[in-house]
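User: My instructor asked us to take a sequence, write out its structure as tokens, and then describe one feature of it. I'm not sure where to start. Here is the sequence I was given:
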Amino acid sequence: MALAGAAVSVLPGVADAAEATAKGKSRVVVATDASAFAKGTVNKPVLGKMLGRALAKLTETNSGALAWKKLFSPDDVVGIKVNCLFGPGVSTRPDVVAVVIEGLKMAGVDENNIIVWDRSSSDLIKCGFIPNSGKGVKVFADDDKWGPEISQGAFKGKISTIISEKVTAFINMPVLKTHGIAGISCCLKNHYGSFHNPGSHHKNHCTPAIADFSSIPMVKEKSRLVVVDALRPQHSGGPGLQEKDQFDYHSIIVSTDPLAADYHGVTIIQNALARAGKKPIPDSSLIWLQAAQERGVGTCDPNKIEIARV
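Assistant: Let's start with the prediction itself. The structure tokens for your sequence are:
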């Protein structure tokens, strides 16, 4: 395993995205296919093609395989941060993760250097992940064995050793849904499973704690890609499962800017609420977006976000 002190590589795909941001735009790509998800089942071949198209567009390459190689190298140890707290239906789907793992292998990442993780083994198990600390893709949790305590602005907590010690890069893989305190749960909120005391960081709609965590240098520098499961988002009642408030969107969302992806996620949820005749998420619940932008996590300015659809 790579140590936290190892240099974080800047690969071509990441550099391209950084250059695009420097020019004033963060690219968010939405891939959609109605056959990707039906009756609770992921069509992995279809999803693989969707993800390939999305990453090719994100990195301006001709294929998904080339895109993966621009984003990751054989020298990387890659963490995949899933969200399993509230169980099946509103958590990261193992089949979606499996498609991402196949992509990492295209980049030459050894399966022994891929770690799927969340804060609790019991949460992983209830969502269909099988713990494994042996050969092959690792699947394990912090399980109260946390790394160093870090203070950054309003954030103070013990960080996951997967981030602090084990990986050179990670992929953030949330499910798009609402959250009663933060408005939505997506990329930044998914990291409330990356430290030991999330309950202490929900004040004032998680602001600015949620932004301060994502601005920690090791977190920001190792954040390589976000892959948002928007196959069947939830527009109300989150973060717990409310099947009546879920809707088919048949999409995945990719970006190298987690904040831009979150902003677009808000837009999707607000549109769904409008269609359902419900009140929108109030701006007061979403003040963490601006706080994260001010801290350099990414952009939430719609004029600086390019939405591409494939």
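For the description part of your assignment, you could build on this observation: Residues 1-10, 17-22 have pLDDT under 50 and may be disordered. Try explaining in your own words what that tells you about the chain.
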